[in-house]
Amino acid sequence: MIGFVRGRLIAKHPPQLLVDVGGVGYELEAPMSTFYGLPGVGSEVALHTHLVVREDAHILFGFASERERRLFRELLKVSNVGPKLALALLSGMSVDNFLLCIEAEDADTLVRIPGVGRKTAERLLIEMRDRVKNLGGPAIAGSVTGAAPQPGTDAQSEAFGALVALGYKPAEVTRLLKAVDPSVQTTEELIRQALKAAVAQ
Description:
By secondary structure, the protein is of the alpha+beta class.
């Protein structure tokens, strides 16, 4: 099991990123909560990881904090929740906001995440009720290091692709991005505002 990687950030195209670790390029998928804090390309980055092994692929997931990774792993234990849906949940809300939803039994907020239907939301409320106790307390500081994210060459296109990859329909992505403040220039901020608008609906 690969539990941690540290190296130079080669590329970031949400939700995928590429990290050079001693001359070996590791492809990872990460939630937007991690992307928001990534340094610019070429900087050093350190991420907690979780490896998902399938018959057709080995997929490495990266997280800025151990707390995010723990929630991801707990989500995978829930019936009918796979890595893609777990990634969407972590992208749509912070760990603390997810815990608040569980404690308040707030299914309405959960169903605003793409891929989460009413039955899945209710299952999450039931099955995560006891598991979230392991995630309580103050947030653990992330391991991401470096400067602020740099603007992408085509932030709108990258944001569009990332939101579609997270499960949103293209027409809905177009609508969400049109509602974002035109002054926003970075991919990460475009996605952040679009996700915020989606959950607030």
